[in-house]
C-alpha cells in the first residue's frame, strides 16, 4: 500500500473522529441549554405561584381595612390585588400548557379564587351600600376563611407538583453535565491516542525516511560512514493538540456557565433557591455532629416596594445589588447568602459555638445599613428587618427553620423598636 493511500486513510479517520466529537458536543450543548430553560421555567412557575398568594392576601387585606375603617384608600390594594391575581392565574395557565395535570389543578384553583373574590366583593358592596352590619355578619360566618383555606390547599398541591417536576428537571440537567463530562474525557483520550498514532505514522512513513535520506546524502558527500539520526519535527502535532484543547476549554467553560446560571440569581450573583435546602440540610447535619449550631437569618428590606415604585425599577435593582454586596461583606467564607426573590434574602451561618456570635453578626449587619446608599444621584436610606432561627435550638428541619426565621422577621418588621428578632416558640401562638 502506497504512502499516499495510507496518509489519505489516516487523515480521513482523524476527520471523522473530530467531526463526530464536535457533533456530539454540539448536540449535548443544545440539549443542555434546553434542559436549563425548563429548570428556569419551573422556578418562574413556582415564583408566580408565590406572587399569586401574595396578591390574594393584598386583596383580602384591603377588604378588611375597608370594612374596619370605611376608608376608600383601602380599596386601592383591594382592586390591585384582584387585578394582579387574575393576571397571574392567566399567566400560570399559559406557563403550564405542557402539563395537563397542572392545568386541571389551575382550573380548580380558578373556581376557588372566583368564589373567594365574590365573597370579598359581596362584603365591599354591602359596606358601600351602608350595610356594614350585614357585611360583618358575612365576614364572621368564616365563609371567606374556608375559601382561602381551600385556595391554600390547592396552591400547596400545585407547588408540590412543580417541586417534583423541578427535581426531575434538575436531575436531567445534572445527567446532561455528566454526559458532556464523559464525552470530553473520551474525546481527550481518543485525541491523545490518535496523536500518538499520527506521530508514529509520520515518523515511520515520512520523517524518518526523509531524514535518513538527507543524512546519508551529506555523509556520502563527505566520504563518511553512513549513520541514521532520527529528527522529528512536532510543529504540526502541537497545532492539532492546541486546537483540540482550546475546543475542550470552551465546552468546559460553557458547562460551568450553565451550572452557574442555574444556581445563582442573575441580578445580584447570589445563590438562588435551587441549592438552598440541600446546603442548609448539610450544614445542620455537619454542625450537629460536631456539637455546633447553625443559624438562619431571614431578611427583607423595609419600604422597598415604595422606593421601587417611586424611583423606578433600575434604582430598585441597584438597591438589591448594593444590599447583596453589604450582606456578603458581613459573613465568613464558611457562611452563605441567598436571594429568595424580590427583596427577600437568607443567610446561613455555620459552625456556631457561642450564640453571642449570632447577635454580634446581626448587629454588624444592621450597622452596615446605617450608611445611606448613593444610587443614581439619590441618597437612599433603607433598612432590613431580620428574623433569626437556630438549629438545633428551634428545629433541625430545614423547611421549618426557614419558616421560623420568616416568622421572626415579620415580628421584627411589626416592632419598630428593633430591627431583628430571635425566633421564639410563643410566636407560633400569637400568629
Which whole number gives the mean pLDDT?
Answer: 84
Query: What is the CA-atom radius of gyration, in angstroms?
Result: 32 Å
Number of strands: 7
Q: How do the strands of the widest beta sheet line up side by side?
A: 2-3-1-6-7
> In angstroms, what separates the terminal alpha carbons?
88 Å
Helix/strand order:
HHHHHHHEHHEEHEEEHEH
Strand content: 5-15%
pLDDT < 50 runs, ≥5 residues: 228-238
Please tag this protein with its features.
431 residues, alpha+beta, five-stranded mixed beta sheet, two-stranded antiparallel sheet, 12 helices, 10% strand
Provide a quick synopsis of the model.
The protein has helices spanning 3-69, 75-95, 100-128, 132-140, 143-222, 235-263, 276-289, 304-311, 313-329, 356-368, 398-414, 426-430, and strands at 293-301, 336-341, 344-352, 373-375, 378-380, 384-391, 420-422. By secondary structure, the protein is α+β, with helices and mostly antiparallel strands.
Structural account:
- With 431 residues, this protein is an alpha+beta fold.
- The protein has twelve helices and seven strands.
- The strands form two sheets. The protein has a five-stranded mixed sheet.
- The relative contact order is 0.07.
Layout of strands and helices, then pairs:
Elements: H1 3-69, H2 75-95, H3 100-128, H4 132-140, H5 143-222, H6 235-263, H7 276-289, E1 293-301, H8 304-311, H9 313-329, E2 336-341, E3 344-352, H10 356-368, E4 373-375, E5 378-380, E6 384-391, H11 398-414, E7 420-422, H12 426-430
Parallel strand pairs: 6-7
Antiparallel strand pairs: 1-3, 1-6, 2-3, 4-5
Helix pairs in contact: 1-2, 1-3, 1-5, 1-6, 2-3, 3-4, 3-5, 5-6, 8-9
Amino acid at each position: 500500500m502506497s504512502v499516499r493511500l495510507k496518509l489519505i486513510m489516516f487523515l480521513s479517520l482523524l476527520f471523522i473522529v473530530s467531526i463526530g466529537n464536535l457533533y456530539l458536543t454540539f448536540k449535548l450543548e443544545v440539549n443542555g441549554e434546553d434542559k436549563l430553560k425548563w429548570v428556569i421555567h419551573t422556578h418562574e412557575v413556582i415564583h408566580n405561584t408565590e406572587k399569586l398568594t401574595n396578591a390574594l392576601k393584598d386583596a383580602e387585606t384591603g377588604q378588611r381595612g375597608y370594612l374596619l375603617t370605611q376608608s376608600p384608600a383601602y380599596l386601592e390594594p383591594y382592586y390591585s390585588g384582584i387585578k394582579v391575581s387574575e393576571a397571574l392565574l392567566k399567566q400560570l395557565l399559559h406557563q403550564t400548557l405542557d402539563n395537563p395535570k397542572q392545568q386541571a389543578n389551575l382550573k380548580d384553583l380558578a373556581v376557588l379564587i372566583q368564589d373567594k373574590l365574590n365573597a370579598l366583593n359581596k362584603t365591599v358592596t354591602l359596606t358601600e351600600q351602608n350595610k356594614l352590619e350585614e357585611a360583618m355578619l358575612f365576614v364572621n360566618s368564616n365563609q371567606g376563611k374556608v375559601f382561602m383555606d381551600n385556595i391554600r390547599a390547592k396552591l400547596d398541591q400545585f407547588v408540590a407538583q412543580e417541586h417534583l417536576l423541578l427535581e426531575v428537571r434538575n436531575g436531567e440537567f445534572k445527567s446532561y453535565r455528566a454526559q458532556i463530562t464523559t464525552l470530553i474525557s473520551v474525546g481527550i483520550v481518543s485525541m491523545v491516542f490518535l496523536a500518538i498514532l499520527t506521530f508514529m505514522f509520520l515518523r515511520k512513513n515520512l520523517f524518518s525516511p526523509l531524514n535518513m535520506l538527507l543524512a546519508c546524502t551529506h555523509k556520502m558527500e563527505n566520504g563518511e560512514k553512513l549513520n541514521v539520526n532520527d529528527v522529528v519535527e512536532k510543529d504540526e502535532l502541537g497545532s492539532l493538540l492546541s486546537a483540540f484543547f482550546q475546543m475542550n476549554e470552551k465546552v468546559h467553560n460553557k458547562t460551568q456557565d450553565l451550572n452557574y446560571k442555574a444556581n445563582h440569581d442573575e441580578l445580584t450573583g447570589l445563590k438562588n433557591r435551587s441549592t438552598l435546602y440541600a446546603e442548609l440540610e448539610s450544614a445542620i447535619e455537619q454542625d450537629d455532629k460536631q456539637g455546633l449550631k447553625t443559624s438562619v437569618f431571614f431578611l427583607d428590606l423595609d419600604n422597598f416596594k415604595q422606593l421601587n415604585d417611586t424611583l423606578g425599577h433600575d434604582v430598585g435593582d441597584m438597591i438589591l445589588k448594593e444590599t447583596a454586596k453589604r450582606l456578603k461583606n458581613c459573613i465568613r467564607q464558611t457562611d452563605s447568602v441567598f436571594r429568595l426573590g424580590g427583596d427577600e434574602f437568607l443567610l446561613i451561618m455555620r459552625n456556631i459555638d457561642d450564640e453571642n456570635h449570632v447577635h454580634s453578626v446581626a448587629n454588624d449587619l444592621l450597622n452596615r445599613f446605617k450608611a445611606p446608599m448613593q444610587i443614581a444621584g439619590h441618597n437612599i436610606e433603607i433598612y432590613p428587618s431580620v428574623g433569626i432561627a437556630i438549629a438545633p435550638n428551634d428545629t433541625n428541619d430545614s423547611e421549618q427553620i426557614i419558616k421560623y426565621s420568616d416568622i421572626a422577621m415579620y415580628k421584627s418588621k411589626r416592632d419598630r423598636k428593633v430591627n431583628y428578632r430571635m425566633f421564639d416558640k410563643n410566636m407560633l401562638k400569637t400568629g
